[in-house]
Amino acid sequence: MKIVVCVKQVPDTASEKALRSEDSTLDRDAVDAVMNEMDEFAVEEALQLAERTDGEVTVLLMGPDQGTETIRKALSMGAHKGIHVVDDALHGSDAVATSAVLAAALASEEGAGGAYDLIILGSEASDARTSLVPAMLAERLGLPQLTFAQKVDTDGANVTVERLTDYGHDVVTSGLPAVVSVVEKINEPRYPSFKGIMAAKKKPVSTLDLGDLGLDAAEVGAAGAWSKVEDFAVRPPRTTGELVKDEGDGGKQLVSFLASRKLV
Amino acid sequence: MAEILVLVDHLDGDVKKVTLELLTKARSLGEVSAVFVGSGFDTAKDKLAEYGAATVHVADADELTAHPVAPKAELLAKLVADGDVAAVLVPGTAEGKEVAARLAIKTGSGVITDAVDVVASDQGIVAEQSVFGGSTVVHSTITRGTPVVAVRPNATQPEPAPAAAERVDVAVELSASAKLATVTERVVKSRTGRPDLTEASIVVSGGRGVNGAENFTVVEALADALGGAVGASRAAVDSGWYPHQSQVGQTGKTVSPQLYVAAGISGAIQHRAGMQTSKTIVAVNKDAEAPIFDLVDFGVIGDLFDVLPQATEEVAARKG
Ligand SMILES: Cc1cc2nc3c(=O)[nH]c(=O)nc-3n(C[C@H](O)[C@H](O)[C@H](O)COP(=O)(O)OP(=O)(O)OC[C@H]3O[C@@H](n4cnc5c(N)ncnc54)[C@H](O)[C@@H]3O)c2cc1C
């Protein structure tokens, strides 16, 4: 089974994020870059499915040069090869542009010319948190969308997932190829082993730019975005109100406070 | 006046609160048309009328709900193509955002998710978003197509403004690609009788300090006394004490209730990302240095197993 897993590099969630005043994009220099956490679950799921089916995992990333670190991480976990789409014109790309680039990369020669069985993504990136890209990718490729999966099963011809819902879950099934996104409940991502890290250094990573994908710079990046940030403002941080030490009536004091705010 | 389409979120006609919020917002933008997919319109009609839907496009063919997401996007795309539509508002739920995603690609339109406000201006529709866990407020416009906006639940106070909710049936010829994935089973967890986490005006959450699934009854009791929903930190969910659907934070739900109570939760940045836009925040924690206390309006330094039951009793006593 041929599996492509799309990963994103994001600012470490443990660091405070800010927008740049020049162009209202995320200030990526100010923070450490890591693999989007949900994508670790996507890589793990891809590896487990590949192990069961004697398959191959390709990791696909769109992003600046330093994105190679995230590709290497996926390779050190066990993915077989990488594709890195990197182009200055991509800076500021929204979900619409990102999904166009990923779709084009999947259709390209390096992306196995579309000859894959499963495309797996994390269900959300921790920076933008839109969950738009998996659905947009399915729409663009005309493939079945099996998203928010907390469980994935495939027999090589069909794929079945448990789609997490607010009321429980839906069992959703389709033929292959298909687009799958996973939630963090699905598995326990492995840590790269020393051997894995060494092996990753020799694994092939091809680099593509917009020209290779036949895309026009005007369609992507901030220039090609279909929405525009008009302005932004940083809110003053919350400050501590009243703190009391429980001396036996902490619960009552709490309720008095709630009553003073008309919350009970 | 141009139409504003509002995708109705409902379970068999039981209309979710977020729908009423969307209808309320939509009224300030144009002529409101609700879009109702699935069965149960007769149950839903009164609510939709009460909150100002002039028209309701009803699509109740089974195949629209037999396949996830894509059919709803195709239906909305058809309505956008056939009518004079100024904007489409969808619930900012997991499914709503995915419908928005596909609709945006189909109609060549910009999309904004997690909007906490939507207003009409000279530049067209302006959406306000609250990003990075509420630390930054962003205003955005859509520069292409028919704006598609996913509005975050609980961001608007629903206000009634009666209208006709006149039923207009729509049929849509689904494309083959919209039918590729099929729902074969719908598993509905037993209902707790509590409000939905993202819709609740009060949320009481427990963390690692609750120390066991059975102890969550302490958290539930306070939630029930206050009429609120129960949330959990990731540590509590990862320990298997509470279901994943209840997780609040970076990789869980974003909640913005009138009152958020954090019990036995340290207040890690990833937890704060999901709750720090709550109007009032209170916390109970044994550790006076816990970071959660940095953002509380009121905090009790103490053991939650003392404080929560006493608070529950006190609420009951006040209610008489
Ligand atoms: C990428 C990423 C995404 C994440 N996403 C989320 C997310 O969505 N949601 C989330 O919550 N976390 C998330 N986390 C995890 C987060 O970093 C914290 O680990 C987690 O929030 C801690 O949960 P906690 O506060 O319950 O546990 P702890 O940090 O262990 O805190 C427990 C607290 O309980 C107090 N306590 C213990 N016993 C008692 C008692 N008897 N009475 C009163 N107080 C008591 C302790 O003093 C302590 O402050 C994420 C982490 C990462 C890296």
Task: Describe this protein's structure.
The complex is a heterodimer of chains A (264) and B (320). By secondary structure, chain A is of the alpha/beta class. In chain A, helix 2 (68-77) packs across helix 5 (194-200) and helix 3 packs across helix 4. Chain A has one domain (2-224): Rossmann fold. Chain A contains eight helices and 13 strands. In chain A, helix 2 (68-77) links the parallel strand 4 (56-62) and strand 5 (81-85). Chain A starts with a strand and ends with a helix. In chain A, the strands form two sheets. In chain A, strands 9-8-7-10-6-1-4-5-11 form a nine-stranded mixed sheet, sandwiched between helices. Chain A has a two-stranded antiparallel sheet with strand order 2-3. In chain A, 28% of the residues lie in helices and 29% in strands. Chain B has 320 residues and is an alpha/beta fold. Chain B has two domains: 3-179, HUPs (Rossmann fold, 3-Layer(aba) Sandwich); 202-319, TPP-binding domain (Rossmann fold, 3-Layer(aba) Sandwich). Helix content of chain B is 28%, strand content 29%. Chain B has nine helices and 17 strands. Chain B has helices at 17-27, 41-50, 63-66, 70-82, 94-107, 216-226, 234-238, 269-272, 304-319, and strands spanning 3-7, 10-11, 14-15, 31-37, 55-59, 85-91, 111-121, 124-131, 136-142, 148-151, 166-169, 182-188, 202-206, 229-232, 259-263, 280-285, 298-301. Chain B has a nine-stranded mixed sheet, with helices on both faces. In chain B, helix 4 crosses helix 5 and helix 6 (216-226) packs parallel to helix 9. Chain B is elongated and about 60 Å long. At the A-B interface, helix 3, helix 4, strand 7, strand 8 and strand 9 of A face helix 5, strand 7, strand 9, strand 12 and strand 16 of B. Strand 12 of chain A pairs antiparallel with strand 9 (136-142) of chain B, so a sheet runs across the interface. The complex binds flavin-adenine dinucleotide (FAD). Flavin-adenine dinucleotide (FAD) sits between chains B (207-209, 233-236, 247-252, 264-266, 268, 270-271, 274, 284-287, 290, 303-305) and A (13, 37, 126). Flavin-adenine dinucleotide sits between chains B (207-209, 233-236, 247-252, 264-266, 268, 270-271, 274, 284-287, 290, 303-305) and A (13, 37, 126). Chain A: One of its GO terms (molecular function) is electron transfer activity. Chain A: InterPro entries: ETF_a/b_N, ETF_b, ETF_beta_N, Rossmann-like_a/b/a_fold. Chain A: This is Electron transfer flavoprotein subunit beta. Chain A: Residues 23-217 form the Electron transfer flavoprotein alpha/beta-subunit N-terminal domain. Chain A: Belongs to the ETF beta-subunit/FixA family. Chain B: Residues 4-183 form the Electron transfer flavoprotein alpha/beta-subunit N-terminal domain.
